[in-house]
């Protein structure tokens, strides 16, 4: 049984890692997928590879005919919009890879428009991107506190509750506390207004919503905020048949207080991009460029650094650190991106029709292992 047959799923940060794993999982479950990624050459290449991988997987679930469409650039562009409309003519599994350019169109409006233009509606949203710099509490710059909150927490809110953008909106203001006044109509509003009404929203979260971190005093509050936000959204949006879930995994950085990270290993990670440098001063330019894929959250899938992705690959090359992480996990192995796909597909599907506001740990048992 294909749990997401003909469902339209929007996924942010889906060109690699966990986002890619969930995108492939949704596609194998029968979904039509809008893949959102950074508008950079590497992310575009990665998204193209995701589509190629989808083509290889389709035959295994009996989906025939063309099934992959890549859309790059501003969806408001007339030519690009025609490309997206053409995807409606495709049979079987259909996937659109959407490269967002914040300098041209607000990320949330663009994703919604792309999905509705291509497939007529949005059934599911998956927020998979975030930022995670490391700082000792007394060393946290004010700008890092603001940017981490803006991307991880504000971004989750805006993607869900975005309103119609005003004609003279200023893109940089999306990252301020007044941003909700400049944007309109994103995922939840679309799900409320479409016929039939409803949908499901999953946010890939972190175990940092539940525990502290010695070098993450600016990060863990944002994850706790997202958890609270999704729980409140589950109540607020239930009358519109919209479910909100929180799957969470563990990330290698979430336990940085237990194992010292060498300065050379410290990086600030945003979605599919890694900012160079030990202390990662995040400029407004970087935020405007990279925040594009950091904007969808409802069901947080929580993990705690136990999932191997390109983000933590360098640190996990250290045999001591790898052995430490594996020893902490009762299932005795690090997780893979596809380990998040199953829980995400379940929560997005009608199999979870009576599940909302749930917080699901996907960490191999790491959180409960206190010894």
Radius of gyration of CA atoms, rounded to a whole number:
19 Å
Query: Mean pLDDT, as a whole number?
Result: 71
According to CATH, the homologous superfamily is NAD(P)-binding Rossmann-like Domain
Structural class, by secondary structure, is: alpha/beta
Q: What does the largest sheet look like?
A: 9 strands, parallel
**Which term fits the overall shape?**
globular
Helices, by number, come to 11
What is the highest CATH level, the class? Answer: Alpha Beta
Architecture, CATH level 2? 3-Layer(aba) Sandwich
Strand content: 15-25%
The number of distinct β-strands equals 11
Give the tally of structural domains.
1
* Helix content range: 25-40%
H-E order: EHEHEHEHEHHEHEEEHEHHHE
User: In whole angstroms, how far apart are the ends?
Assistant: 40 Å
Poorly predicted runs are 71-93, 100-105, 165-185, 252-300
CATH-assigned fold name: Rossmann fold
Family: Belongs to the short-chain dehydrogenases/reductases (SDR) family.
GO biological process, one term: fatty acid biosynthetic process
GO molecular function, one term: quinone binding
Protein name: BZ3500_MvSof-1268-A1-R1_Chr3-2g06224 protein
Which features would summarize this protein structure in a list?
371 residues; alpha/beta; two-stranded antiparallel sheet; 11 strands; oxidoreductase
């Amino acid at each position: 049984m294909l749990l997401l047959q003909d469902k339209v799923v929007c996924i942010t940060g889906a060109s690699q890692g966990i986002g890619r794993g969930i995108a492939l999982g949704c596609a194998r479950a029968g979904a039509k997928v809008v893949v959102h990624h950074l508008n950079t050459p590497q992310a575009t290449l990665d998204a193209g590879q995701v589509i190629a991988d989808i083509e290889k997987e389709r035959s295994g679930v009996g989906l025939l005919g063309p099934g992959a469409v890549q859309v790059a650039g501003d969806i408001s562009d007339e030519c690009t919009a025609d490309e997206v409309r053409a995807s409606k003519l495709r049979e079987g599994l259909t996937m659109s890879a959407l490269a967002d350019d914040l300098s041209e169109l607000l990320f949330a409006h663009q994703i919604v428009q792309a999905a509705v233009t291509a497939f007529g509606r949005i059934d599911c949203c998956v927020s998979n991107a975030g930022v995670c710099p490391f700082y000792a509490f007394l060393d946290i710059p004010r700008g890092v506190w603001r940017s981490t909150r803006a991307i991880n927490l504000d971004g989750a809110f805006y993607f869900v509750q975005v309103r119609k953008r005003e004609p003279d909106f200023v893109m940089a203001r999306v990252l301020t506390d007044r941003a909700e006044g400049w944007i309109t109509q994103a995922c939840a509003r679309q799900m409320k207004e479409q016929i039939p009404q409803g949908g499901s929203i999953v946010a890939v979260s972190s175990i940092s919503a539940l525990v502290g971190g010695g070098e993450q005093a600016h990060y863990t509050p944002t994850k706790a905020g997202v958890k609270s936000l999704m729980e409140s959204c589950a109540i607020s949006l239930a009358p519109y048949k919209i479910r909100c879930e929180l799957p969470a995994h563990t990330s290698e950085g979430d336990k940085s207080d237990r194992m010292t990270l060498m300065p050379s290993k410290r990086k600030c990670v945003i979605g599919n991009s890694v900012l160079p440098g030990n202390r990662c001063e995040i400029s407004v330019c970087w935020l405007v460029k990279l925040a594009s894929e950091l904007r969808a959250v409802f069901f947080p899938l929580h993990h705690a650094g136990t999932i191997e992705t390109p983000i933590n690959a360098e640190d996990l090359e250290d045999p001591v650190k790898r052995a430490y992480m594996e020893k902490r996990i009762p299932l005795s192995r690090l997780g893979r991106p596809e380990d998040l796909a199953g829980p995400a597909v379940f929560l997005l599907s009608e199999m979870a029709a009576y599940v909302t506001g749930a917080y699901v740990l996907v960490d191999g048992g790491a959180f409960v292992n206190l010894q």
